[in-house]
Each structure stands twice: as structure tokens, then as C-alpha cells.
């Protein structure tokens, strides 16, 4: 009887663990910061947003604070904030450079960050000033492992 109970608990745990990992997605060719921002690099241009993992933990996003076009951002520095029904979190830039575009759609539809974090929910576009900084970011496999380890702590 005790072994059945143990097996039941183990199976229950595994289902929860597998479900959670499967829920948050990553995009193979993007780079990731440990503060849960993603960056899509195209030449000297970078599109930045928050990851699926981050939006999942935040809950429904109700407001996104966007920077002004032309503002300088630095790697690891805050450039805005995301406000959700649960909390407000700073958004940090994974790269240094100049903001060349902001996603104005987020002013009217902040929920795009939840619905489409890697496509329609992007936040800023940056002209990269220090491409060597990209080496310090995680690839998709490293970021997935980072998220699993972080979630295991909670």
C-alpha cells in the first residue's frame, strides 16, 4: 500500500512538472537575459520583449510603460515597466544602444504581452551599440534550463 501511495505522489509531481515546463515557450534563435527579457537580433537592430515565462508569472498585463524613441539604454538597465494584476516589474534592456521604435500598440492593448510575447507583444527596437554584449546572454537551451532551476527554487 505504501508503495502505491508513493507512486501516486511521484506521478502527480511529474505531471505538474512536465505541464509547467511545457507551458512556457522559448524561441530558438533569440537570446535571453536572466531578468527574463528576450532579444531578436537582425544585423545591428534588436527587438526586445519579455519572455513567455515572465508574462506567465506576472499574470494579465494591464499597462506597459514605454520609453521615448531616441533614449539610450544600457545592458541590464531599466527602460520601462510592466504592470499586471499581480505586480509591477521593471523591464531591463538585454543590450546597450538607442531606442529607435516602441510598440505603440501596447498603449491600447497591453495584453499583447500575454497573448503574443514573442511577436505582437514586443516592446522596443534598439540600434545596438555594443554587439559584444550579446555573448553574455543565454541561448534558448540555457534559458529553458535557467527557468526550470529558478522554478524549482520556488
TrEMBL record:
<feature type="domain" description="Lipoyl-binding">
    <location>
        <begin position="45"/>
        <end position="127"/>
    </location>
</feature>
<dbReference type="InterPro" id="IPR002930">
    <property type="entry name" value="GCV_H"/>
</dbReference>
<comment type="subunit">
    <text>The glycine cleavage system is composed of four proteins: P, T, L and H.</text>
</comment>
<dbReference type="InterPro" id="IPR033753">
    <property type="entry name" value="GCV_H/Fam206"/>
</dbReference>
<dbReference type="InterPro" id="IPR011053">
    <property type="entry name" value="Single_hybrid_motif"/>
</dbReference>
<dbReference type="GO" id="GO:0009249">
    <property type="term" value="P:protein lipoylation"/>
</dbReference>
<dbReference type="InterPro" id="IPR017453">
    <property type="entry name" value="GCV_H_sub"/>
</dbReference>
<keyword id="KW-0809">Transit peptide</keyword>
<keyword id="KW-0450">Lipoyl</keyword>
<dbReference type="Pfam" id="PF01597">
    <property type="entry name" value="GCV_H"/>
</dbReference>
<dbReference type="GO" id="GO:0005739">
    <property type="term" value="C:mitochondrion"/>
</dbReference>
<protein>
    <recommendedName>
        <fullName>Glycine cleavage system H protein</fullName>
    </recommendedName>
</protein>
<dbReference type="GO" id="GO:0005960">
    <property type="term" value="C:glycine cleavage complex"/>
</dbReference>
<dbReference type="GO" id="GO:0019464">
    <property type="term" value="P:glycine decarboxylation via glycine cleavage system"/>
</dbReference>
<comment type="function">
    <text>The glycine cleavage system catalyzes the degradation of glycine. The H protein shuttles the methylamine group of glycine from the P protein to the T protein.</text>
</comment>
<feature type="modified residue" description="N6-lipoyllysine">
    <location>
        <position position="86"/>
    </location>
</feature>
<dbReference type="InterPro" id="IPR000089">
    <property type="entry name" value="Biotin_lipoyl"/>
</dbReference>
<keyword id="KW-0496">Mitochondrion</keyword>
<dbReference type="InterPro" id="IPR003016">
    <property type="entry name" value="2-oxoA_DH_lipoyl-BS"/>
</dbReference>
<comment type="similarity">
    <text>Belongs to the GcvH family.</text>
</comment>
Amino acid at each position: 500500500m505504501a508503495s502505491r501511495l508513493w507512486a501516486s505522489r511521484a506521478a502527480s509531481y511529474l505531471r505538474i512538472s512536465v505541464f509547467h515546463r511545457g507551458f512556457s515557450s522559448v524561441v530558438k534563435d533569440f537570446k535571453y537575459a536572466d531578468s527574463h527579457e528576450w532579444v531578436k537580433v537582425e544585423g545591428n537592430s534588436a527587438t526586445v520583449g519579455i519572455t513567455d515565462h515572465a508574462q506567465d508569472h506576472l499574470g494579465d498585463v494591464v499597462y506597459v510603460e514605454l520609453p521615448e524613441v531616441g533614449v539610450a539604454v544600457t545592458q541590464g538597465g531599466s527602460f520601462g515597466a510592466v504592470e499586471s494584476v499581480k505586480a509591477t516589474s521593471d523591464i531591463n534592456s538585454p543590450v546597450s544602444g538607442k531606442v529607435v521604435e516602441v510598440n505603440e500598440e501596447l498603449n491600447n492593448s497591453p495584453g499583447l504581452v500575454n497573448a503574443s510575447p514573442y511577436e505582437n507583444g514586443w516592446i522596443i527596437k534598439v540600434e545596438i551599440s555594443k554587439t559584444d554584449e550579446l555573448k553574455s546572454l543565454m541561448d534558448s537551451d540555457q534559458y529553458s534550463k535557467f527557468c526550470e532551476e529558478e522554478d524549482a527554487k520556488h
